[in-house]
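Trying the structure run again after the queue cleared.
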Amino acid sequence: DRGRDFFCLPCDCPRGAPEFEFSIYSPSMSLTSQRVPCNSSLCQSDCPTANQCPYKIAYVSADTSSSGILVEDVLYLTTEDEVVEAQIIFGCGQVQTGSFLNVAAPNGLFGLGMEKISVPSLLATTGLTSDSFSMCFGPDGVGRISFGDKGSSDQEETPFTPNPTYNISITGMAIGNSIDTEFSALFDSGTSFTYLADPFYTHLSGSFDSQVLDKRDTRIPFEYCYDMSFNSTQIPSVTLTARGGSQFPVSEPTIIIPILQHESVYCLAVLKSNTLNIIGQNFMTGMRIVFDRERMILGWKQFNCNVEESSSLPIYPQNSPPTISVGPSSYNPEA
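Done. Tokens:
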């Protein structure tokens, strides 16, 4: 999750566990697990005992929080010819609430932000990788992450804006017709769909709707949904222009939702936000997205994300409902 820094897992949860089966990390079952002591530079809490560091992190969405202790353990990374053992620090969440107990994030959050507690920062600090990583999302709901990946010389690029998160400046949108506009947007795979605040949401959705030939369908929570038909193959294309002029073509601006056994609709997978603009996972499909923290640039290139070049991680299914962002209050698209 690129919008957050802190990596946390459900860990021997004594209470707050959901009614469905999910993965739990148990320090007692790991021979390499160690508690982070109170005097660690990463410990910012008042400690009841010297041999452990408690944490509690609260999120805005649906009363979501995680609390427990910091632990250190081995993260196994696969390279082309060997397995690398990386020591990382993460939250052992003993009490989980809100979105951690449902489909949004039942197995925790993999913190990929810019702060020193994040996984990429820990890997770079120890010299295991360059301070850069890439993610690649296929249309089948599977994504991969590659730590140390700085992309390729022929990728498109744009600088990050001064911000503690992965924000870039969008200078234009083309939905069939070009629209000159400028706004800052956060690239965040932890948000399944894309959120835009007005006037940018109205510009994009209105232009998209004016070019669709299919009948509008109002049975779905998305604002702009249409009945599937033969002409549905003529869905308007969406392209973003980033600062510097690089083009970001969106291969999956819509989502297909089954209604009845032989009936489906497709929807513009963009939701209205009050303030924050978020480029969600759906807009990243079919791209290798590079987060180069050394050069402070975002890079991208169209890519076959099904090619087995790195480890695979499951992500939200393409036809999942809109999820609630599990970010701190400053990242809440619904605030």
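Residues 200-211 form the longest helix (12 residues). Worth checking whether this holds up in the mutant runs.
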